[in-house]
Amino acid sequence: MKVRVATTREKAELGEAIEDAALAQATEQAMTLLATCVRNAIFYGIQHSVAREAVKGAADALGELLAERAHIVLNIRGDEFILGNLPLRDPVGVLVPLAEEFTTRGVGKLTFLPGVQASELEAVAELLITNPQALELQGDASDILSHRSVTHVVVEPADAEQRPEDLKQREAIEIYEDAVETIKKTMSAVEKGQAIDGAEVRAVVEEILGSVLYDSSALLSLAAIKSYDEYLYEHSVNVCIVAMMFGYTLGLTEAQLVDLGVASILHDIGKVFVPLDIVRKPGPLTEEEWMLMHTHPAVGARILGTTAGVPELAPVVAFEHHIKHDRSGYPKLTRPRLLNFFSHIVTVVDCYDSLTTVRPYRAPVRPEQAVGWMLYSGRGQFEPRLLARFAALMKLYPPGAIVRLDSREWAVITGGSEHDLARPVLRLLVDPNGMTIRGTKIVDLSQRDTHGGYAHSIVDCLQPVSKIAEVSSVLNR
């Protein structure tokens, strides 16, 4: 057997890719420490020891990175930091809100120079915890930092040269349509007893992932447009898009995201053997029809288990995506087992896309209503940490989120109702003077006062930090 030897150029490119990835990971850690400083400063003030400890760690980490570099440049696009061509991952869920705070203050580009000091990062943190309207009276972000003698952190507006919006959208449309055609062709092949082209499916998923990493908004907007006639195919593609975006925020690697994408785009492959009149039936299914519907996970798993070119987890996800966290779904297990991490992700996204799509037997619900139902009425069906993180992505108030009230009190969300997501039930933590509240004091924000108004409202939210990104031990369950 002839072994192909990598060329010098390929080795150099591989070395550069490894170095870029290592730099991105180290930068993620430094920015995570800066984000931690900002959060601690909100609670305790910028001079508190926990805030200063985090900012010192960020300065030390950046100092090490800049020891052999002229600068580190981060572009900020919406809620993402971009280093070169690599978006920084957000494994603990703190970089997205940090990027949003920079964006809100007109910062689109962030440059760190050798010699950056903790005091300079403190000034940056102070900038980010100050009300944006109050900052406008002092000038732009660059002027404010300059007045604070910050010389080793340079903030600038976003680069004027941007990729044309119509080009991004056009390319996203082409990618989406190609994906729908591919899954349609794949399901047709299965129905005819032909083999699935696993390499073609993977190629489409990789293209989707590239678009999601560049600008997730374009594909997500397409995934929100539902077609009744193309439901099965579009649903598969939509679940793939949202699952990979979700997985990215959880800290999955690109290789893991591709495997997740392939598994999610094929999760309903067994439905090709469920008669279309059952899938589209406008009324309740009979017991026999339900029994037939309940076969599609096992059928899909058998198909994918003998398909070359798909990840080993694909048949597992196909089999498990309707079992649910509390085991209330199907198929019923004959013995206890831990469900796969990817299956938990697809369960959440599959339900979300189904609820927001018009079906023969019900009208679609708005995205926030769908997530609200999942949080409060169907919450036992989903892995709770993943569900909370998914709700956080939707800018909702999941249980566990820390919120600030208009009374200057801080509280943690403990429950609520899908009918009024802006007014959950919470437990007070800190009083208006910054003192910890002893005992349990529950407040229901949906309750009105004697004048018919609401006593309190939420004015800020710190989304829960999820440790679910540490998935190396559960990916092979």
Structural commentary:
By secondary structure, this protein is of the alpha+beta class. It folds into three domains: 8-156, no CATH class; 165-364, Hypothetical protein af1432, CATH 1.10.3210; 402-462, no CATH class. Helix content is 50%, strand content 9%. It is built from 17 helices and ten strands. The protein has helices spanning 8-44, 49-66, 95-104, 118-129, 132-136, 141-147, 165-191, 198-223, 231-249, 254-265, 276-279, 287-293, 296-305, 313-320, 341-355, 367-376, 384-393, and strands at residues 72-77, 80-83, 86-87, 109-112, 153-156, 402-405, 410-415, 425-430, 442-444, 458-462. It has a five-stranded antiparallel beta sheet with strand order 3-2-1-4-5. Strands 9-8-7-6-10 form a five-stranded antiparallel beta sheet, with no helix packed on it. A hairpin with a 2-residue loop joins strand 1 (72-77) and strand 2 (80-83). It is globular, with a radius of gyration of 24 Å.
Describe what is shown at a glance.
The protein has 477 residues and is α+β, with helices and mostly antiparallel strands. It has 3 domains: 8-156, no CATH class; 165-364, Hypothetical protein af1432 (Orthogonal Bundle), CATH 1.10.3210.10; 402-462, no CATH class. The protein has 17 helices and 10 strands.
Shape: globular
CATH architecture of the largest domain: Orthogonal Bundle
Q: What structural category characterises the helix and strand content?
A: alpha+beta
Q: Biggest sheet, in brief? A: 5 strands, antiparallel
Give the strand line-up of the largest sheet.
Answer: 3-2-1-4-5
Number of domains: 3
**Helix proportion of residues, in percent?**
40-55%
Can you tell me the CATH class of the largest domain? Mainly Alpha
Q: Measured on Cα atoms, how large is the radius of gyration?
A: 24 Å
Give the SSE string: HHEEEHEHHHEHHHHHHHHHHHEEEEE
Number of strands: 10
At the fold tier of CATH, the topology name of the largest domain is: Hypothetical protein af1432
CATH superfamily of the largest domain: Hypothetical protein af1432
